[in-house]
Amino acid sequence: MGTYNIILGFLLSFSLSVATDHSPLQDFCVADPESRVLLNGLACKDPKTVKANDFSFGGLHLAANTSNPIGSSVTPVTVSQLPGLNTLGISLVRIDYAPSGINPPHTHPRASEILTILEGCLEVGFVTSSPENRHITKVLQKGDVFVFPIGLVHYQRNVGTGNAVAIAALSSQNPGVVIIASAVFGSRPSIGSEILVKALQVDQGVVNYLQSIF
Ligand SMILES: *[C@@H]1O[C@H](CO)[C@@H](O)[C@H](O)[C@H]1NC(C)=O
């Protein structure tokens, strides 16, 4: 019985440890943008040609333009911007929010996210999976930290009087993002409106309107 539990524990910890970006098998694998090799991740540059700038990104002190319908802007620092992140399982983003701006409900298919408020005041939340669909929400001040578990739908809203700024770290070099409204109403080609009418229990006109916006 004891042996069985040890084996089960080992199998569980193994399956958890491979549930996110894989551990590197070498010091680094700086992404080679020229490579035509298709693999899970990006091919490595020749380590001899790697430079300090491959591990660096500049400009995250700069506020992004939030003059858009949602009043927020995300500046990513993933493997696409910082090739040295390839195979390392981490990345980060800066998020700027205008007063009343939101980062709309979205998920990251490959990463948990830990967000810290540098300026302002944010209402944040996520929703657990069905059937509970429990909404976990909190108002955060400068210096507060909040975690969004991998895969769950989450959002932020600026509830302060001025601009807000957050930095969020993500547990993938390429966390991905699924913005709920864009995925459901803005896919190309569209999801059949008869599907959305039944799924959302609304009139055809509402679906047509939402599909025209997204
Ligand atoms: C911010 O973006 C808006 C909308 O695209 C644009 O009209 C405006 O000029 C931009 N502001 C700055 C400072 O770049």
TrEMBL record:
<comment type="function">
    <text>May play a role in plant defense. Probably has no oxalate oxidase activity even if the active site is conserved.</text>
</comment>
<feature type="binding site">
    <location>
        <position position="106"/>
    </location>
    <ligand>
        <name>Mn(2+)</name>
    </ligand>
</feature>
<keyword id="KW-1015">Disulfide bond</keyword>
<feature type="domain" description="Cupin type-1">
    <location>
        <begin position="60"/>
        <end position="208"/>
    </location>
</feature>
<feature type="binding site">
    <location>
        <position position="113"/>
    </location>
    <ligand>
        <name>Mn(2+)</name>
    </ligand>
</feature>
<feature type="binding site">
    <location>
        <position position="113"/>
    </location>
    <ligand>
        <name>oxalate</name>
    </ligand>
</feature>
<keyword id="KW-0464">Manganese</keyword>
<feature type="binding site">
    <location>
        <position position="108"/>
    </location>
    <ligand>
        <name>Mn(2+)</name>
    </ligand>
</feature>
<dbReference type="GO" id="GO:0048046">
    <property type="term" value="C:apoplast"/>
</dbReference>
<keyword id="KW-0325">Glycoprotein</keyword>
<feature type="disulfide bond">
    <location>
        <begin position="29"/>
        <end position="44"/>
    </location>
</feature>
<feature type="signal peptide">
    <location>
        <begin position="1"/>
        <end position="19"/>
    </location>
</feature>
<protein>
    <recommendedName>
        <fullName>Germin-like protein</fullName>
    </recommendedName>
</protein>
<keyword id="KW-0964">Secreted</keyword>
<keyword id="KW-0479">Metal-binding</keyword>
<feature type="binding site">
    <location>
        <position position="154"/>
    </location>
    <ligand>
        <name>Mn(2+)</name>
    </ligand>
</feature>
<keyword id="KW-0732">Signal</keyword>
<feature type="binding site">
    <location>
        <position position="108"/>
    </location>
    <ligand>
        <name>oxalate</name>
    </ligand>
</feature>
<feature type="binding site">
    <location>
        <position position="103"/>
    </location>
    <ligand>
        <name>oxalate</name>
    </ligand>
</feature>
<dbReference type="InterPro" id="IPR019780">
    <property type="entry name" value="Germin_Mn-BS"/>
</dbReference>
<dbReference type="InterPro" id="IPR014710">
    <property type="entry name" value="RmlC-like_jellyroll"/>
</dbReference>
<dbReference type="Pfam" id="PF00190">
    <property type="entry name" value="Cupin_1"/>
</dbReference>
<dbReference type="GO" id="GO:0030145">
    <property type="term" value="F:manganese ion binding"/>
</dbReference>
<comment type="similarity">
    <text>Belongs to the germin family.</text>
</comment>
<dbReference type="InterPro" id="IPR011051">
    <property type="entry name" value="RmlC_Cupin_sf"/>
</dbReference>
<keyword id="KW-0052">Apoplast</keyword>
<dbReference type="InterPro" id="IPR006045">
    <property type="entry name" value="Cupin_1"/>
</dbReference>
<dbReference type="InterPro" id="IPR001929">
    <property type="entry name" value="Germin"/>
</dbReference>
